[in-house]
Amino acid sequence: MSDRSLSDIATKMRDIDIAMLSTHTDGGAIAGRPMSNNGEVDYDGDSYYFTWEESRMVEDIKRNSKVGLSFQGEKAFLVAVEGEADLIKDKAAFKEHWTKDLDDWFKDGVDTEGLVLIKVSATRVHYWDGEDEGEVKLDGAKQRH
After folding, report:
1. Cα end-to-end distance, the chain, whole Å
2. Handedness of CA 112, 49, 30, 124 (dihedral sign)
3. In terms of pLDDT, which residue wins out, 26 or 38?
4. What are residue 140's phi and psi, to 5 degrees?
5. What is the chain written as a DSSP string?
6. What is the pTM of this model?
7. Gap between the Cα atoms of 52 and 22, Å rounded
């Protein structure tokens, strides 16, 4: 098992835009959907995703904030994240994480009615890079290596 730091993993994650965000449904199943990280590539254990407040995903998070993220990069580089999701409705936070590409999905920008920002704070990051694998555990204060 390898001993890479979160910073080492983040460097390899820079080219990955799409993550699979998995939640627990009310029936106990696990539901996954692709989400863009909107070009936020300086991964420090927190991920941010915009969506609609009335979505099933948001309902799932309200019931159970434990979520999973899966990332796939080039040449068998994969990352699995376990974390806690928070739902943010603050326009200042929206502006901090907004990119112009989001205008295609949310026509009124940060003023779009029903917009919510999902923040996923990692508690565990497991990675595979070919035959190399390892994990980084994080606490609420985000351990940084």
Report:
1. 17
2. negative
3. 26
4. -60, -25
5. -----HHHHHHHHTT--EEEEEEE-TTS-EEEEEEE-TT----SSEEEEEEETTSHHHHHHHH--EEEEEEE-STTEEEEEEEEEEEE--HHHHHHH--GGGGGT-TTGGG-TTEEEEEEEEEEEEEEETTEEEEEE--TT----
6. 0.88
7. 16
41 — pLDDT class (breaks 50, 70, 90): low
Side-chain half-sphere CA neighbours of 32 within 13 A: 9
Distance CA 145, CA 16 (A): 21
* Cβ-contact 96, 85 below 8 angstroms: no
Residue 24 identity (one-letter amino acid): H
Please name each of the domains of the chain with its CATH number. Answer: 6-137 (2.30.110.10)
Tens-digit pLDDT profile for residues 63-113: 999 999 999 988 889 999 999 999 999 999 999 999 888 999 999 999 999
